[in-house]
Amino acid sequence: MEPIEESKDTKKSGKGNSEKRKLEANKELERERTKNLQNSDMPKTDKGETHIESSKGVYEIKDQLGQGSFGAVFMVKRESDRKHFAMKCESIHVKKQILAHEARVLIALNMLNSVHFAELVDLGKLKNRFAFIVLKLVGMNLWDIRIRLPNRKYTLNTALKIGEQTLEGIRDLHRVGFLHRDIKPPNFAIGREEDSTHHIIYVLDFGLSRKICSKGVDLRSPRTTCAFRGTTRYAALAAHDMREQSRKDDIESWWYMFAEGIVSDLPWKTFKGTDRDGVKAEKKKLRDDKNAMKNLFTNFGCYDQMSAILTYLDSLSYQNIPDYDYVYNQIISAAQANGCSDNKSVDWDKSVDYKGPKYKTGEAYIVKQLQ
User: Fold this and answer.
1) Where ATP is bound, by residue (predicted)?
2) Which segments are annotated as binding site?
């Protein structure tokens, strides 16, 4: 049998696939090269590089706490007073540098004096290698706390106290003119028992945050289309629809995180992060099917309050500043209905009464005062 002659289209397709594979291979090589450069930029404690100096002081590297695409996080000790801090380092070879932006957010928050944000202690740069910020050390994040509990489940008392503190932290971020846009349990952490802050919850990671207010402008005009920002499990419907996010969308993401803390498993738990349409459909089902919402919360004694919060959030537009106090009052209503007292201990520290900060009602928008 004579060989079948390859058509021009087939030849063209084969050539196209070959070029595509070559392009992907080149991209992978470039990613690997960049990653190696980033790693080489980081402090080399194994080669005696154990001290980092800034204009304010000298820090001794004690341990590596984590590593990511940006660089690494270290525990450091300030030589002047022997106090320990976290030092976040970002390689100069990171394609999209975010550390300077994170520093700007923290500077604004430090002016607010909110208890829910780690103090920015210092910042600096090691020429041609990395930039760094020095922060107050915090403890375990909320995701890690929950998965270590029996049945990976908070008691309702603990879930409600977490809801109260995280709501206040997000509100305070909004008060200085920033959205978070990646509300999820790993981006909140308790303080450390060593400095008696382990009942305080801190808001972390402002890499996806966006400034929405500036001098003379209370709210930036929404862009027509936006890239997806956030984490699929907790993303607001606006994020799913590639629409500009606003304050209400942060609180919607908070609602999903809060709900998960109460019930443990959200209806879309088994969906992959790439299945945004599937997760979006499940989130819409909570609104469209009353039984879905009831089935989720009936056994936890807070269906009325959780339903009221989500209904309220869905009534808001892009321009609206949420009534955070209304949301807080729903949390208090759920606590009272279920006998959760103010000082009842939390799951991560059952041996003592709860001493976390109480939510402070008040002005939801103060960015003008800070400017």
Assistant:
1) 88
2) 88
